[in-house]
Amino acid sequence: MSGNSSRTRRQPDFTFDRLLGAIEEIHHHLVTQATQAIHASLTLRNWLIGYQIENYRRVGADYFRYRDRLIDELATALRRYGLARCDRRELYRYRQFYLAYPRIAEVAAASWPSIQSVVKTTATVAAPTLSASQLTGKVLVGHLSFDHLAELMEIDPPRKRAFYERECLRGRWSARTLRRKIAGLYYELADLAEDRPQDAEGAPADADAESRLTVRDPGILEFLGLKPREVIEKTDQEEQWLDALEAFLLDLDYGLCFETRQKHLLVGDAHCFIDLVFYHRLLKCHVLVEFQPAEFGHENITQLDACVAWYREGMMAEDDNPPVGILIHARQHRARVEYALAGLDRRLFVSRYQPALPGDRELQRFVEQTRTLFDST
Known about the structure:
- The chain is an alpha+beta fold.
- The protein has helices at 2-7, 16-59, 70-79, 88-100, 105-111, 116-126, 137-143, 146-152, 158-171, 175-183, 186-189, 192-195, 218-223, 236-251, 298-314, 346-353, 360-376, and strands at 256-267, 270-280, 285-292, 324-331, 334-340.
- It folds into 2 domains: 15-221, no CATH class; 227-376, Trna Endonuclease, Chain: A, domain 1 (3-Layer(aba) Sandwich).
- It has a 5-stranded mixed β-sheet.
């Protein structure tokens, strides 16, 4: 009896608040662990694809049939299998990734034992020693995404690359922050490359990767067999609205050329999806269209304006004009239209852009006709 009572004895310090905290800690820890594992798997997949391509170039029995056409032929053949991100450009990147990071070999071999001896031998020949300033492959795969490593592999010399590797972990940078730091000549101008100790221990191997890694990354979604659109929580009717809107805008013949749908952008640390992206062949600019069937809020136009600014900074070609955004809000049987200019001179917009873009009346007519069509079905 006494033993039974001891097993059920209450713990004075185990309160309801502690219960909540324990559950939250368990959830946070295991979600972070799972996210890191998925990112690591994608990184290793890409490295191993690069290894297989390079190995085939070196010892492939029928390589002579393809030679310079190898990547093109491989991309065409892989398309039939529906593999995520295995187009020509990506396959070139994977081979470059393998060549730039031979130190990942030990981690890759552990995940793919059938080529363990070959991969280890290749890595030993390519990189017999690890510089004191370089992080191990295990640390790189465990704490940086492939997007990080794709940026890092473009950096020369190795000392400069090692500096950015350590700073990524030390500062918990996102891939977008890394790109901005590189473009801003952080290594050259901050005078930190000479001052910081050049040992691999300088970066925390157990740095929390949650601020950088997310399963909503489109590359991760495609790797898992999903499409970014499948997790945006659009209803079937919203998708029908977008189908109708895309067709309507193209039929107006304003010079809009369709580019893509549900375009993913990483604006700061926020993931955004633009409903429709067009290129205007007369204005020579991108036009970002966002459709909002729900209640209008000021955050909608603010977010679209940030996306237009992102396009202006990162997507404009030399002969392009600044992009614009159109926010269409369906209210009952009418439409409210807002324009996102991201700093574009309003007088220029009114005199040059607005006459070449769909107007309020046309978009209101679209909303009225489409809603009537939906109501009748």
